[in-house]
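R.M. (postdoc): so does anyone remember the format we settled on? I'll just put the structure tokens first.
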């Protein structure tokens, strides 16, 4: 965990972050394609908060996969453009060929998983002379791979939807086995394989993401009201969870969400 007295910029605030739909061929596998332009003249210390997702990245001429985070990760962002493809729930396991609990909190070179094919992807992206064309090329290269990979299991998206719906209608973790037709033990193993951690941890991370969404929509909201809207028991519960998952105070977390942070004020 990042020490509380070391405040870092939230990664998606450290540059110019943009998301777009993945190309049609990739949509069964990926939620979105994204870029983060880091325009600073020096390296930036950033905080990546857990979001329950796995991303393929190309940055610094390296092709990597960032595994699911169970707590905040501290990463150095160098000037340049980061390209990303964010997997749909449950999709990454088939692409990587290993259970996700093997790469929790890690950034792994795709060469270790794909060998020569990963080197070819990195070389083709590096050789593209027009930086603005690289995200499209990245997707085209992955579309060639996608034809041989099965879409993710439907249970993964169902699980996220049951946990991440509006507070009033959400399903508690204890009810998931019945909804997914699995025993509690089987669900726990299955969740670790496809998400990197068990249902309880996934539930905490999805609630943190609801807090992020609520704070961005209601920037003037108090911590107490945000706690209710996001599904926390109360403000102290929110504060404990933000500190545990993000390594910063709830007030600092919300402050960075609701302002246009710049490197002077100080993703993946």
């Amino acid at each position: 965990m990042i020490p509380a007295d070391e405040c870092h910029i939230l990664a998606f605030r450290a540059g110019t972050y943009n998301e777009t739909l993945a190309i049609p061929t990739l949509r069964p596998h990926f939620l979105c394609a994204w870029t983060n332009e880091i325009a600073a003249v020096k390296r930036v210390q950033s905080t990546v908060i857990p979001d329950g997702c796995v991303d393929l990245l190309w940055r610094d001429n390296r092709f990597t996969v960032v595994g699911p985070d169970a707590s905040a990760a501290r990463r150095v962002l160098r000037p340049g453009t980061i390209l990303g493809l964010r997997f749909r729930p449950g999709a990454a396991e088939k692409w990587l060929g290993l259970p996700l609990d093997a790469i929790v909190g890690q950034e792994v070179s795709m060469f270790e998983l794909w060998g020569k094919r990963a080197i070819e992807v990195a070389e083709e992206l590096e050789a593209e002379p027009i930086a603005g064309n690289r995200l499209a090329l990245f997707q085209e290269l992955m579309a060639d791979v996608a034809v041989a990979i099965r879409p993710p299991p439907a249970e993964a998206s169902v699980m996220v939807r049951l946990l991440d719906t509006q507070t009033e209608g959400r399903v508690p973790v204890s009810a998931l086995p019945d909804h997914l037709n699995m025993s509690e033990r089987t669900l726990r193993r299955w969740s670790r394989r496809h998400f990197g951690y068990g249902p309880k941890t996934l539930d905490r991370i999805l609630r943190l993401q609801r807090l992020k969404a609520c704070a961005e929509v209601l920037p003037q909201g108090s911590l107490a009201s945000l706690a209710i809207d996001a599904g926390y028991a109360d403000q102290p519960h929110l504060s404990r969870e933000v500190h545990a998952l993000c390594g910063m105070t709830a007030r600092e977390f919300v402050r960075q969400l609701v302002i246009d942070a710049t490197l002077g004020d100080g993703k993946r």
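R.M.: ...and that's the designed sequence above, right after the tokens. Also worth knowing: Residues 199-217 form the longest helix (19 residues). The chain has eleven helices and nine strands.
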